[in-house]
Amino acid sequence: MVDRGASALSLPDDWPAHPDPILALNRMGSFDWDLNTGLFHMDAQAHEVFDLRPDEYDGNPISLAVRVPRAEAHRLDALVAQAIKDGSENYGTYFRLRCRDGTLRWTHTQGYIRRDETGRPRRIIGIVRDATQEMGELEARREQAAQDEARRRQTNVVQLTTAALAHARTVQDVIDVLKDTHGLTHLGATSLVMGLVEAGRIRLIAEGPAGSFVPGTDITRIDEPYPMSEAVRTLSPRFIESPEEFADRYPILWPHITGLNITSAAYLPLIAEARPIGAMGLLYSDRYGFTTEDRNVLIALGSSIAQSLQRAMLYEQEKDLATGLQQAMLPRTIPSVPGADVAVRYRAAGAEGSLPRDIGGDWYDLIPLPGGRVGAVIGDVQGHDTHAAAVMGQLRIVLRAYAAEGHTPATVMARASVFLHELDTDRFATCLYAEADLSTGVVQVVRAGHIDPLLRHADGSCRRATVDGGLPLGLSAEFGQLDYPVSTLELDPGGTLLLCTDGLVEEPGADLDDGMKTLSKLIAVGPVDVWELADRLIDVAEERGGDDDVALLLLRRRGLDAPQSGGRLQQHVAAGDPQALTEARHMIRAAVGTWGARERSDEIELVADELITNALMHTEGSAIVTLRVMTRSERRMRVEVEDTSSALPRRREAGESGVSGRGLLLVDLLSDVWGVEARGGGKCVWCEFVVGERT
Question: Is the peptide bond before 368 cis (omega within 30 degrees of 0)?
Answer without folding.
Answer: no
